Amino acid sequence: MFNKTYKVIGVMSGTSLDGIDIVTVEFNVLDKEWSFKILGKETISYSEDWVNQLKKAITFSDEKLRQLNENYTILLGSIIKEFITKYNLNDIDAVCSHGHTILHQPQNGLTLQIGNLPNIAKIIGVKVVCDFRVQDVKLGGQGAPLVPIGDRILFSEYDYCLNLGGFSNISFEENNRRIAFDISPVNTVLNYYSNKMGLNYDDKGEISRKGNLDSELLNELNNLEYYSQSFPKSLGFEFVKEIVLPLIEKYSITYHDKMFTFTEHIAIQTAKALPSKKGKILVTGGGAYNIYLMERMQFHLPTIELIIPDSELLEYKEALIFALLGVLKLRNEINVLGSVTGAKKDHSSGMIY
Question: Which value, in Å, is the radius of gyration of the alpha carbons in the chain?
Fold first, then answer.
């Protein structure tokens, strides 16, 4: 007999390197209907050294990656333990942690999220559910996106769930199947050029807003092969590093113009990704704070209602859903949908330590 109430911690670190998001969540399930309450949350920023390491890790040797994984597991475990101590959380059923994606090459049967080594449970002193992507890749899936099962269970009142983080991804129901895929890079590119200008990010999109459109660059971006591929499909930082940035760098235009043009590209690809241009979209992730990007999306989707929730849900939705994935794993219930990842079947993924 399973619990009807779970008190768990959800942990997420995204490709935009904003930091480690941690939430305490209470889930209640009654007659297969789920509800949740976020009891506490915090984002722990990375040190400059860790940001640099995580940015460069894609080029590391196997041995260097192994050491990074060990060091990151210690870092992550220590941060989660401090969070538990700080808020006196003595009644936690489990910590449900995504880790941090370093390599994502599902076409090569490879995905690596560091911070998921077994000793994380010893460091924290609490049961840990983690490493949700590897099993899906072994089953022929993309290992992503994983959030759509949470969209279906917790946010079914919306026609679409759109997350704007390092990459954008969309999730929706079509013919009683959940469909989801990564749309395009977002903050991985916009933050890259903001960093070049000595800023952490483009606050409210004000830098992008001041630029001018380069039509030739926009056309090249929109014609990248990825956008013509059918789903399931997903993106990793490799796509940005090897394809997108080299393409943008061919153009001798200002950073403002590059960001203006790329923002337009994001908005166009988002509009193209929606099978119907009507209904309500729940928009979450750091990109939802980019007012200029939201304006361009609304321009390309005039009949869609863009709904931006309160900051708690906007910033912590992914950590919340990884908390749910962990609970589903503990219940041995499906937490990954083959319809969105391309895996041979729906399955219950993750390791329990």
Answer: 20
